[in-house]
């Protein structure tokens, strides 16, 4: 399976871009979705979280209190390390399972921490959705209703814009209007189909 790694900093519009590829029939394995599911109600990982932090880590219905946990791990780096050690192996296993099960012409692995978690090793090509840090801050605060301080913490925990661009094979510029995205995605989609066709031929010969 030919895998396109898709990444971008918080607020970059990565999900909007992956949705546009999905509209072309391309399957998307979303690391954020897999990560959320790893801590679903009744999961062993959520039981471990409750055992460590108590009922304060849960909502009244027994599901994870994600806002509480997010604040906890940003305030205490050692707790972030513990949570990563718990969930990352589960997330990686499920992502690989979904990548191998994909049946579209190629498959997208969408992950905000594609570089940081060394997921590029599973990718044939890396596409970065690029925006300025000022745009990241503005869009994230408007979308998530979080403080400026928390946005800064999230940005600081991710690879820098320069690091992402250095790792990119392709770049989508999303500093402008959303209406400018479909044409960029369409162009890249056609290029990827050609690359997949070319790699298939080389394997057959």
Automatic annotation (TrEMBL):
<feature type="binding site">
    <location>
        <begin position="11"/>
        <end position="16"/>
    </location>
    <ligand>
        <name>ATP</name>
    </ligand>
</feature>
<dbReference type="GO" id="GO:0005524">
    <property type="term" value="F:ATP binding"/>
</dbReference>
<dbReference type="InterPro" id="IPR027417">
    <property type="entry name" value="P-loop_NTPase"/>
</dbReference>
<comment type="pathway">
    <text>Cofactor biosynthesis; coenzyme A biosynthesis; CoA from (R)-pantothenate: step 5/5.</text>
</comment>
<keyword id="KW-0547">Nucleotide-binding</keyword>
<protein>
    <recommendedName>
        <fullName>Dephospho-CoA kinase</fullName>
        <ecNumber>2.7.1.24</ecNumber>
    </recommendedName>
</protein>
<keyword id="KW-0067">ATP-binding</keyword>
<comment type="function">
    <text>Catalyzes the phosphorylation of the 3'-hydroxyl group of dephosphocoenzyme A to form coenzyme A.</text>
</comment>
<keyword id="KW-0808">Transferase</keyword>
<dbReference type="InterPro" id="IPR001977">
    <property type="entry name" value="Depp_CoAkinase"/>
</dbReference>
<dbReference type="GO" id="GO:0005737">
    <property type="term" value="C:cytoplasm"/>
</dbReference>
<dbReference type="GO" id="GO:0004140">
    <property type="term" value="F:dephospho-CoA kinase activity"/>
</dbReference>
<comment type="similarity">
    <text>Belongs to the CoaE family.</text>
</comment>
<dbReference type="GO" id="GO:0015937">
    <property type="term" value="P:coenzyme A biosynthetic process"/>
</dbReference>
<keyword id="KW-0418">Kinase</keyword>
<dbReference type="Pfam" id="PF01121">
    <property type="entry name" value="CoaE"/>
</dbReference>
<keyword id="KW-0963">Cytoplasm</keyword>
<keyword id="KW-0173">Coenzyme A biosynthesis</keyword>
């Amino acid at each position: 399976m030919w895998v396109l790694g898709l990444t971008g900093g918080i607020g970059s519009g990565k999900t909007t871009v992956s949705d546009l590829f999905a509209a072309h029939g391309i399957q998307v394995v979303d690391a954020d979705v897999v990560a959320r599911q790893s801590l679903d109600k009744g999961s062993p990982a959520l039981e471990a979280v409750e055992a460590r932090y108590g009922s304060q880590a849960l909502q009244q219905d027994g599901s994870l209190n994600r806002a509480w946990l997010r604040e906890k791990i940003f305030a205490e780096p050692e707790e972030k390390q513990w949570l990563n050690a718990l969930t990352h192996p589960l997330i990686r296993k499920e992502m690989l399972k979904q990548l191998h099960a994909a049946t579209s012409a190629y498959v997208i692995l969408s992950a905000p921490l594609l570089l940081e978690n060394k997921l590029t090793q599973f990718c044939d090509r890396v596409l970065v959705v690029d925006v300025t840090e000022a745009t990241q801050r503005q869009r994230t605060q408007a979308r998530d209703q979080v403080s400026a301080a928390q946005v800064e913490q999230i940005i600081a925990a991710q690879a820098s814009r320069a690091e992402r661009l250095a790792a990119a094979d392709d770049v989508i510029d999303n500093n402008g209007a959303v209406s400018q995205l479909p044409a960029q995605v369409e162009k890249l989609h056609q290029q990827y189909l050609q690359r997949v066709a070319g790699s298939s031929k080389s394997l057959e010969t």
